[in-house]
Design a protein that fits this description.
single chain; alpha+beta; four-stranded antiparallel β-sheet; globular; binds zinc ion
Length: about 90
């Protein structure tokens, strides 16, 4: 396994518009990197959680984030969001 990063088929592409919504969300919540306190992230792919775990909302996603601080000890992290908070489904709140 090692450190090789594979794109899993279960994860979904986050397009430019959704990406910007995620970043706006992070800024609004004042979310920070747990490892270095950084506030700048690159948005990666999203993994649908809704049907994997019974205690998740059916609309829950884990969106991959990469901290942009070059000194960050563990730059890979993620944020849980509801699909309607960042995906184009016609009734997002922003
Ligand atoms: Zn960091």
């Amino acid at each position: 396994m090692g450190t090789e990063i594979r794109v899993r088929p279960e994860s979904i592409e986050v397009d430019e518009v959704a990406r910007r919504r995620v970043l706006r969300r992070i800024a609004a919540e004042g979310a920070r990197c747990h490892h270095c306190g950084g506030t700048d992230f690159v948005v990666g792919r999203a993994l649908y959680l809704g049907f994997l775990f019974l205690d998740e909302d059916t609309d829950a996603y884990l969106v991959a984030l990469t901290c942009t601080d070059p000194d960050c000890p563990r730059p890979h992290t993620g944020i849980r969001l509801r699909g309607e908070q960042f995906l184009d489904d016609g009734h997002h709140s922003t």
